[in-house]
# Entry
Amino acid sequence: MTADVIVIGGGISGLATANGLLQRGLEPLVLERQAKPGGNAISERFDGFLMEHGPTTFNASVPGASEHIGALGLLENAHDLGSDVKRRYLRDQGQLTGISAHPAGFMLSNYLSPKARVSLLMEALRPRKRGDEEESIHQFTSRRFGREFADKVIEPMAAGLFMGDSKCLSINGAFARLADMERQHGSIIRAILKARKGSEPGRHLYSWRDGIGVIPRVLVQRLGKRVKTGVAVLGLRKTTRGFEVKTNTGMLQARAIVLAVQPHVAAELLEPLDVEGANAAAGISAPPVNVVFLGYRREQVDHPLDGLGFLATKDPSRIISGAQFLSTMYEGRAPEGYVAISAYAGGARNPELAGWDEARLVAETHHELSDLLGIKGTPVVQRTRRWALGLPQYELGHPGRVVHLRGTSQRVPGLYVTGNFLSGVSVANCLSNAAETAAQVREVLGGQVTGLPSKTG
Ligand SMILES: Cc1cc2nc3c(=O)[nH]c(=O)nc-3n(C[C@H](O)[C@H](O)[C@H](O)COP(=O)(O)OP(=O)(O)OC[C@H]3O[C@@H](n4cnc5c(N)ncnc54)[C@H](O)[C@@H]3O)c2cc1C
# Structure
């Protein structure tokens, strides 16, 4: 086996980068320390249920997302959201409120006070921000839409999408498109209305019968022996011909390296080669996240589960920050007559939950869901996934950190960084970043593709 480029990390970012390199005529080798590739995109079927340990949904509204999926031959068998997904729910002060998925949903619901609803509409008339001082998501949305909307809608959204805190996350880092809309159009509402004009309603969220795990599976099939599992990279060294890679199974060499690992690992591996990049990666935290998957017989649950699930406002007496009604969202998540719910707890809101034992976590989650959804009895199946390092937090200062990380390839020619901590945490963002990284590597390696022997000791 020879390799031009060693890709460190066999999650979706690493696998997709390697696939992009292969398509461009380079010979990649992916090194993954776990026994199975895929990173946190793990779909597990048991007893007729399908649990997603990480991502559940592919977000096709990211530019180019469906093209990447199409290129993998996965577009035709993608499943849209089920027809019973009619509303989104928000939990505030122990109560669930259903809000229609219609764009005017918040105006038609009494979840927000009348004053907050007027303030929401006023966004279209508010002046554009002056100056370029970085704002948190909470500051930005309070300024544009009003404080109540920021507290009761955006804060739960940040906790759900990023498992983060809207007062710490950077608007330019986490929701760069919103900041751009204000810059370009002066108002988010006006920008959305303009974008909608003449555009066809499209599919935005989808998955597959066997879950998101089909994406890494297809990538691994394409890469074949170019993916090595159980190989942990311990260190990197620059040589005259490229890089020497120290692993738990020996030394390897490559002309170029792509780091597609979590930020704390990137920080360690970059340290001896690029202190600037290493410091930037070390500044990105990823608090622990707990996924609790519970299955019930349909008749145990009073609630119609007629939505995606719910997001929750901060509440010191509760641990769930969001939940998804998986069996309503997509086919094949639970056997006939049963339902499947995934609840998320931890993140920046409750990092201390990492210290809870599994039994306590499941019991508390079941208790909170029972209260909200009118569940009787105990779950028929239960399973948890504890991510010690969950989603990377795009906190204030993140855009600057990304500039340092993207600069790694200039400071250390042949060394690239990709992954979910640069410009979007979603799987779709990871695919886009991976395609860009593969194109950059190809451009730089150009005609110098050599097929170096990969094993030297
Ligand atoms: C609970 C949860 C729910 C999510 N929900 C969604 C969702 O619904 N939709 C969505 O689009 N996104 C979602 N995401 C985000 C998305 O899943 C991730 O951002 C994406 O899968 C990250 O892929 P990655 O390859 O960049 O990183 P990872 O999946 O973290 O992969 C990094 C890989 O590097 C390997 N590695 C680390 N160190 C080394 C080393 N030294 N040597 C070799 N290998 C190493 C790791 O073992 C790992 O496999 C979710 C994430 C989580 C955690």
Remarks:
- The chain is about 35% helix and 20% strand.
